[in-house]
Automatic annotation (TrEMBL), chain A:
Entry-linked Gene3D superfamilies: 1.10.10.410, GatB domain, N-terminal subdomain
GO molecular function terms attached to this record: ATP binding; glutaminyl-tRNA synthase (glutamine-hydrolyzing) activity; transferase activity
Catalytic activity line of the entry: L-glutamyl-tRNA(Gln) + L-glutamine + ATP + H2O = L-glutaminyl-tRNA(Gln) + L-glutamate + ADP + phosphate + H(+); L-aspartyl-tRNA(Asn) + L-glutamine + ATP + H2O = L-asparaginyl-tRNA(Asn) + L-glutamate + ADP + phosphate + 2 H(+)
Pfam families per record: GatB_N, GatB_Yqey
Protein name: Aspartyl/glutamyl-tRNA(Asn/Gln) amidotransferase subunit B
Enzyme class: ligase
Gene: gatB
UniProtKB/TrEMBL annotation, chain B:
InterPro entries assigned: Amidase, Amidase_CS, Amidase_dom, AS_sf, GatA
Highest taxon in the source lineage: Bacteria
A Gene Ontology molecular function term of the record: glutaminyl-tRNA synthase (glutamine-hydrolyzing) activity
PANTHER family found in the cross-reference section: GLUTAMYL-TRNA(GLN) AMIDOTRANSFERASE SUBUNIT A (PTHR11895:SF151), TRANSAMIDASE (PTHR11895)
Protein name as catalogued: Glutamyl-tRNA(Gln) amidotransferase subunit A
Record lineage: Bacteria, Pseudomonadati, Pseudomonadota, Alphaproteobacteria, Acetobacterales
Gene name as annotated: gatA
Keyword Protein biosynthesis in annotation: yes
Length: 483, 493
């Protein structure tokens, strides 16, 4: 059953498309050599090109083009060997040239698709219409002075990829899943850091509603939504607003709206009548962008393994469940951590430890995998100590806690705390024999009540200060009591 | 011989022989500027102290045996080229006291070769005009006079009117200029000097205030064809900072001037024979062709069928690009600002006060032709016609090595004569705009006089990146014409 919102006149379907602006990861801007770091002093990363000085000319940054090509390939899309930059003309104080250089008529990347996963385990394909390169504008700061606006041009000229989807999504969940998947792919490719709080990734959400079987009705665009959660909220809020308009006999006007995150509603920003006439035309300062097929091949061969392929490999080669594989590949860093732990070890055991005790520690400490207190190398070493029977599983959990607290490798902690598991059969037999000799009554009771076996195990382990190899203790006890 | 009468070639020889110093040459030109600029208004900014310092430094370099190709030559710089530390105005109020913190590539190249800059010369505002009348810094007077009529002030042409007048009146040995639709060739013709618009991409546009990016072409003006060749060689070269700059080697242009025209096929386009064109222009044209024939060239009738669409095409493409290029002059970051009630008001007041009428007219035309609903009919159509015009030349150059036409439909006209009729003014560019649309090189060479004694020029067009043939043909015309008349207004006459 597909997702609908019930109105007074019955159920309404949603039609959603996303335009995502992703800041290209690169050291320099799209058409100038200025730096692109986040959080720098205002106007400290501005070249004369970015500030629109007289006689300054744009020169395309090859790395930004490479990132767009990589992204196109990662989205299973057509990379266009010939594309062109256009000028989008409008006046604003933080747009120094009076135009934005963008790709209007001929984008660098054409149609593609990505597969999204939904909570019920199903998957859907979402079409990508196009990806194009463009410049970001600067930032206007209106709250710094009572009578003035301040302009920060650090972002001016920073390379963005605008990734436009087909209107293929039908629910807030799908919109969220699409953005999640897109962000995941960009981060795997390293073409965008996907940081939505810092504005490296922002979405314009196009929403319309319709009755089953209808064509498209008028859509509205909700601008600049900056988290996945807000995208999902904005979709629902805007859809509900439109349903109310239609059901009260009104008409939805095509317009640009903003999502008020505190009140959970969208409000009008500008109507179609106020829309700019951008007077697009080919930028005469830039020759067409011609990409040699050989270069595309070269970039293709250098692409990292993407999440879908990696998940399939975890299921097929490592024998992980689809769910476990999805969790482990969700973040590039997590997958890399997991693979380092799993290298040369049992991949299922590694997955259990990473997703179990290790994730629990991260959660408790409020840390991410990037600043994990336990390195993948140390966690792997811990698994080795379990495998060679130096540590029991229970002891290993304690050691992991100690590792998280101290940052020390497991071997050191084992040494310091004398936590070495005893697997010496002689020592275990001695301990077992001592317990049996001291408790003839219990031995008698055991004959009638085999569940007492656990009590014996506990006594032996206690006598051995918890360091007896549990498997061996079990084995020896069994032999002695039943033999 | 007065130091201001040297050609660049002559001065370079005199300098190398120690007959003259750059200091003496520069001082003589600065004295000429002091004497005549109040009348001619060719210079907007004279940088006398910097020039003298540069001249002395040049003499020192020469004494140390490290003389560049233009070592010690005093030049004027069109005030469209950004010059580090020297106010750059584009002859507009909107740039205010803007002083670039950078040096344009072309002027950097000239400085690298040892040139001395005397100052910044006048032009039509943002290079938009054909008479230098749209400058916010006042009109420039053409140093030539009609017959005995000393009373009528003639225009020097435009937009590089200051460059041409300064060089003709011997206030500078040569000058940088730019040509978007004829802005080098028309003023050169009006002032009786030589000037070349090289192939688009030959000289970097980096640091040149933009008018119409796909047409703007920096180039030199000077009193001889060879001097233009010497200057162009220094100004040219691939510039990675300009994406439209061509990675082509720079040939020895000066050597090409002596090649001769024997065996060359010279095209004469029938479409350039305009109805109502003065007889003396036609006569000059025929004379020029006769000289070339006498030197062994073959004259061939050719057709450039889309010529009649060139002017309207130009007046769509150039304003369209200009309307976008001039958007940056908004009062926010540099130049003139007129504060307003809000941002939009600030824009309107600043741009209303900062731009002159002609610039506003072109911004409006350009905005109109790019607007939704008009784009296809105007801009897109113009781009298609531009392709056809380019194709006309491609086909013509399969059969000929160069094309010779008149440079302008008339000699210099009087100030105010065509001011009220923008369309009549635009007609000045009728012979020159085609080369900009096609991107090919075109040169004006002085070839004669009209019946009132005013200079007339011929235009030599060549294949893209074949300036050498253009220089060879122009030098042959120059030599055959053997002109000796000097402008009435000149330094130390």
């Amino acid at each position: 059953m597909s997702y609908t919102i019930s109105g007074e006149t019955g159920p309404w379907e949603l039609v959603i498309g996303l335009e995502v602006h992703a800041q290209v990861t690169s050291n320099a801007k799209l058409f100038s050599g200025a730096a692109t770091g986040f959080g720098a002093e205002p106007n400290s990363q501005v070249s004369f090109v970015d500030a629109g000085f007289p006689g300054m000319l744009p020169v395309i940054n090859r790395e930004c083009v490479a990132q767009a090509v990589r992204t196109g390939l990662g989205l299973n899309a057509q990379v266009n060997p010939w594309s062109r930059f256009d000028r989008k003309n409008y006046f604003y104080a933080d747009l120094p040239q009076g135009y934005q250089i963008s790709q209007f008529a001929h984008p660098i990347v054409g149609e593609g698709k990505i597969t999204i996963e939904l909570s019920d385990g199903s998957t859907r394909e979402i079409g990508i219409t196009r990806l194009h390169l463009e410049q970001d504008a600067g930032k206007s700061l209106h709250d710094q002075h009572p009578g003035k606006s301040y302009i920060d041009l650090n972002r001016s000229g920073v390379a963005l990829m605008e990734i436009v989807s087909e209107p293929d999504m039908r629910s807030p969940e799908e919109a969220g899943a699409y953005l999640t998947k897109l962000r995941q792919i960009l981060r795997y490719l390293g073409s965008c850091d996907g940081n939505m709080e810092q504005g490296s990734l922002r979405a314009d959400v196009n929403v319309s509603v319709r009755k089953a079987g209808e064509g498209f009705r008028t859509r509205c665009e909700v601008k600049n939504v900056n988290s996945i959660r807000f995208v999902m909220q904005a979709v629902e809020a805007e859809a509900r607003r439109q349903i109310e308009v239609w059901e009260s006999g009104g008409t939805v006007d095509q317009e640009t709206r903003l999502f008020d995150t505190s009140r959970g509603v969208t409000r009008s920003m500008r109507s179609k009548e106020d829309a700019h006439d951008y007077r697009y035309f080919p930028d005469p300062d830039l020759p067409p962008l011609v990409i040699e097929p050989g270069w595309i091949e070269e970039l293709k061969s250098g692409l990292p393994e993407l999440p879908d392929a990696r998940r399939t490999r975890y299921v097929n080669e490592f024998g992980l469940s689809a769910y476990d594989a999805s969790v482990l590949v969700a973040e590039k860093e997590t997958a890399a951590f997991y693979e380092e732990v799993a290298a040369g070890r049992d991949p299922k055991v590694a997955a259990n430890w990473v997703m179990g005790d290790f994730f629990a520690i991260l959660n408790r400490m409020g840390r991410g995998i990037e600043d994990s207190p336990v390195s993948a190398k140390h966690l792997g070493a811990l698994l080795d100590l379990i495998a060679d029977r130096t540590l029991s599983g229970k002891m290993a959990k304690e050691v992991l806690e100690a590792m998280a607290e101290t940052g020390k490798p497991p071997g050191t902690i084992v040494e310091e705390r004398g936590l070495r598991q005893v697997s010496d059969t002689g020592a275990i037999e001695a301990a077992v024999d001592a317990i049996i000799a001291a408790n003839p009554d219990k031995v008698e009771q055991y004959r009638a009540k085999p569940t007492l076996f656990g009590w014996f195990v506990g006594q032996v382990m206690k006598a051995m200060k918890g360091q007896g190899n549990p498997a061996l203790v079990n084995e020896v006890l069994k032999a002695r009591l039943d033999g | 011989m007065h130091p201001t009468d040297f050609t660049i070639r002559g001065a370079l020889e005199a300098l190398s022989e120690g007959i003259v110093t750059s200091e003496a040459l520069t001082a003589a030109h600065l004295r000429a500027i002091e004497a005549l600029n109040p009348r001619l208004n060719a210079f907007i900014t004279v940088t006398a102290e910097r020039a003298m310092e540069a001249a002395r430094a040049s003499d020192t370099r020469r004494a140390n045996g490290v003389a560049g190709k233009l070592e010690g030559i005093p030049l004027a710089i069109k005030d469209l080229f950004c010059t580090q530390g020297v106010r750059t105005t584009a002859a507009s109020r909107i740039l205010g006291e803007f002083t670039p913190p950078y040096e344009s590539t072309v002027t950097s190249n000239l400085l690298r070769d040892g040139a001395v800059f005397l100052g910044k010369v006048n032009l039509d505002e943002f290079a938009m005009g054909s008479s230098n009348a749209t400058s916010a810094f006042g009109e420039v007077e053409n140093p030539w006079k009609r017959g005995n009529d000393d009373g009528t002030t003639l225009v020097p042409g435009g937009s590089s009117g200051g460059s041409a007048a300064a060089v003709a009146a011997r206030l500078a040995m040569g000058a940088t200029a730019t040509d978007t639709g004829g802005s080098i060739r028309q003023p050169a013709a009006f002032c009786g000097i030589a000037g070349i618009k090289p192939t688009y991409g030959r000289c970097s546009r980096w640091g040149v205030v933009a008018f119409a990016s796909s047409l703007d072409t920096p180039g030199p003006v000077a009193r001889t064809v060879e001097d233009c060749a010497i200057l162009l060689e220094s100004m040219s070269g691939h510039d990675p900072k300009d994406s439209t700059s061509a990675p082509a080697p720079v040939p020895d242009f000066a050597a090409a001037c002596a090649r001769g025209v024997k065996g060359l096929r010279i095209g004469v386009p029938r479409e350039y024979r305009l109805e109502g064109m003065p007889e003396e222009i036609e006569a000059l044209w025929q004379q020029g062709l006769a000289w070339l024939r006498a030197e062994g060239a073959e004259i061939v009738d050719i057709s450039l069928p889309h010529t009649k669409y060139a002017l309207p095409t130009y007046y769509i493409v150039a304003p369209a690009e200009a309307s976008s290029n001039l958007a940056r002059y908004d009062g926010v970051r540099y130049g003139l600002r007129r504060d307003g009630e809000d941002l939009r008001d600030l824009y309107e007041r600043t741009r209303a006060a900062g731009f002159g009428d002609e610039v506003k007219r072109r911004i409006m035309i350009g905005t109109y032709v790019l607007s939704a609903g008009y784009y296809d009919a105007y801009y897109l159509k113009a781009q298609k016609v531009r392709t056809l015009i380019k194709r006309d030349f491609d086909e013509a150059f399969r059969g000929v090595d160069a094309i010779v036409t008149p440079a302008t439909p008339s000699a210099a006209f009087a100030a105010g004569e065509k001011q009220d009729d923008p369309v009549a003014m635009y007609l000045n560019d009728v012979f020159t705009v085609t080369a900009n649309l096609a991107g090919i090189p075109g040169m004006t060479v002085p070839a004669g006089y009209d019946r009132q004694g005013l200079p007339l020029g011929l235009q030599v067009l060549g294949r893209a990146f074949d300036e050498e043939t253009v220089f060879a043909v122009s030098a042959a015309i120059e030599h055959a014409a053997g002109l000796t008349k000097l402008p009435q207004v000149r330094a130390f006459a």
